[in-house]
Amino acid sequence: MTRVCFQLRIDPNRLDEYRHRHAAVWPEMLRELEASGRRNYSLFLRPDGLLIGYYETDSATASDAHLAQSRVAAIWEEYMADLFVGQHGRADQTAIILEEVFHLEDQLAELDEHHPHAGTTPALDDSDPNEGER
C-alpha cells in the first residue's frame, strides 16, 4: 500500500466556496475516486488557503492513470479549477507530492521485528536537547 500526501493552494477569498463544493461531492466523482483505487482519502484546509490531501492506494500510478482517463474527473477538475491559485492544468495532475518522512506503524513493525524485547523508552536525562540552538 502507498500513502500519498499532496499540497495545493486555494484562493483565500474562495475558501467558503471550496468547502461548499466538497460538502457534497458528486456521487459519480466519489465512485470514480473509489474505482481509481484511492481509499482513506481526506482533505485538510488551512485558513490561508493551503490544502493538504492524503489518500492510500495500491498504486499511485494506476490511480492517476485511471483519473486521467476519466470523463467525470475531467469535468470535476474543470468545475473546481477557478478556486485554485497558481495552477496550470488539472489540480489532480499538478499537485505537489510531499515526501513521507515518518510513519508510526512502519517503525513499530520494524522495532517489533528486529528488537522484540527492546525497552519502550530510551534512557533520558534532564538536559535540553535543543540547548545551543537558541
Task: Annotate the secondary structure layout.
Layout (H helix, E strand, L loop, with lengths): L1 E8 L5 H9 L3 H9 L3 E7 L4 E8 L2 H9 L2 H10 L10 H4 L1 E3 L5 H11 L20
Antiparallel strand pairs: 1-3, 1-4, 2-3
Give a verbal description of the structure.
The protein is of the alpha+beta class. It has six helices and four strands, in the order βααββαααβα. Strands 2-3-1-4 form a four-stranded antiparallel β-sheet, with no helix packed on it. The model has no long low-confidence stretch (mean pLDDT 91).
Keywords:
single chain, 134 residues, alpha+beta, four-stranded antiparallel beta sheet, 6 helices
Brief overview:
The chain is α+β, with helices and mostly antiparallel strands. The protein is built from 6 helices and 4 strands.
Summarize model confidence as the mean pLDDT: 91
* Ends apart, CA distance between termini: 40 Å
Rounded to the nearest angstrom, the radius of gyration is 20 Å
Strand content: 15-25%
Show unreliable segments. none
What's the helix count? 6
Strand order, main sheet: write it out. Answer: 2-3-1-4
| Secondary-structure element string | EHHEEHHHEH
Global morphology: extended
How would a crystallographer describe the biggest sheet? 4 strands, antiparallel
Give the tally of β-strands.
4
Helix/strand-derived category reads alpha+beta
The helix content, as a percent range, equals 25-40%
